[in-house]
Design a protein that fits this description.
The protein is mainly alpha-helical. It has 20 helices and no strands. The protein has one domain: Growth Hormone, Chain: A, CATH 1.20.1250.20. Helix content is 81%, strand content 0%. The radius of gyration is 20 Å and the shape is globular. The two termini are 28 Å apart.
């Protein structure tokens, strides 16, 4: 295996992340139009997203074992096929199978980050690892932007079911396209003893007992909670509460994801060159809390449309700008051979926030809490997390752990 293929590794993992993210978020973009057709309130999409992330938590935690069995690239292929299967089930199955589709897509989505972490840890230059992770993580907002642009078009031209079938075909095609890269990109597989140490409970225990890994994982839980609430509900809020057209609301989502992609690269570079990644995460948490308050004001109808857009863009840039910095910080504490397994365990906490955020926020809104109050309450979450992370960084040992 050639271990010096950073461009191929980055391009492959970026495309995978884009497609998986587009598939996962498609339901959130289509919810305002499709949910009423199926007899559901649009806020019920939070249940779909929450169930998908629950499945992703489970598959991510098993990623270390599966990488040892199949290799990182073959596991990535299987993840894309699971996303394709879920999208196909959503498009061709009855409405009752939508939750099963969410589980399939979640299972596929859950392995994307751990396998990419293993591949990039092997191929990315050590001095630019944070930047590489950040560029790869731009696949999330770019995938969301793609969904924001293409789902309304597909809905208008093809209908939502055929649009889901097209998404399934795209994921399956990318899975096949990865086949020639297996021998070129796959990192060395763990030994049998290393694989045994990567069982789910052992990994969770390791992450929880290591102070640096624990605080990073809990920070990611709270930050991704905000991120997924934004992605899941911003279109519905703009369309149903503020009266924006679905195309305009989805267009703003797409624009915000372009900004988020640039933000990930910028913050990843800052974390590599000028400010330690932990402190970048602290600053992002504070900015995230402020942007949530801006969305609360926007939802209350007290801002002109231009400031509503500015608040949405600010939230996207902060709530979706932290992920690459997080993985870069994680890589500082984890050996290359263990990156897939440990990132899968850390991701268990990350996706826990992604599962809880849309579910709780959606049910709160559906139960009568209005968007302004919900966004204002949500601002407390990253504020508390950033404060706790800052305290941990101040009290951390001066020398890094062995």
């Amino acid at each position: 295996m050639n271990s010096t293929l950073p461009a191929l590794a980055l391009a492959s993992m970026l495309l995978v992340q884009m497609l998986a993210s587009m598939t996962f978020v498609a339901a959130s973009v289509l919810a305002p139009a499709v949910a009423p057709m199926l007899g559901h309130a649009p806020e019920r999409v939070g249940l779909y997203v929450g169930l998908g992330y629950l499945a992703a938590m489970a598959s991510g935690l098993r990623s270390g074992v599966w990488v040892a069995r199949w290799g990182a690239i073959q596991l990535t292929q299987r993840g894309l096929l699971a996303c394709a299967g879920g999208a196909l089930l959503a498009g061709l199955g009855p409405a009752q199978t939508l939750l099963a589709a969410a589980v399939l897509i979640g299972l596929g989505y859950g392995v994307v980050n751990p396998t990419a972490a293993a591949v990039l840890s092997q191929h990315a230059p050590a001095h630019s690892r944070g930047l590489f992770f950040s560029v790869k993580q731009t696949g999330v907002p770019l995938g969301v932007a793609l969904a924001g642009l293409m789902m309304p078009v597909g809905l208008a031209l093809l209908g939502w079911r055929l649009t889901a079938v097209v998404v399934a075909a795209t994921c399956a095609s990318m899975s096949l396209a990865l086949w020639p890269t297996i021998s070129r990109l796959d990192p060395p597989r763990p030994s049998a003893a290393e694989a045994a140490a990567q069982m789910p409970l052992a990994l969770l225990r390791r992450v929880w007992q290591a102070p640096a890994l624990r605080v990073l994982s809990l920070t990611s839980l709270t930050y991704t909670l905000i991120q997924q609430v934004y992605v899941t509900f911003i279109v519905s809020m703009l369309n149903l509460t503020l009266g924006w057209t679905l195309a305009a609301a989805a267009g703003l989502l797409a624009l915000s994801q372009g900004l988020a992609a640039l933000a990930r690269i910028f913050f990843g570079t800052v974390g590599d060159r000028w400010v330690p990644p932990g402190w970048v995460l602290v600053g992002l948490g504070a900015a995230m809390a402020t942007s949530c308050l801006g969305l609360a004001a926007a939802a209350a109808g007290v801002l002109p449309w231009a400031l509503v857009g500015a608040a949405a863009l600010a939230c996207a840039g902060t709530a979706m700008g932290w992920n690459g910095v997080f993985y870069g910080a994680l890589a500082q504490h984890v050996p290359r051979a263990e990156m897939a397994a440990v990132s899968g365990a850390a991701q268990f906490f990350t996706f826990g926030g992604a599962m809880l955020g849309p579910l709780l926020f959606g049910e709160a809104v559906r139960a009568g809490a209005e968007y302004p109050l919900a966004w204002a309450a949500l601002a407390l979450v990253p504020a508390v997390a950033a404060t706790a992370l800052a305290r941990a960084l101040v009290n951390a040992p001066r020398t890094p752990p062995a």
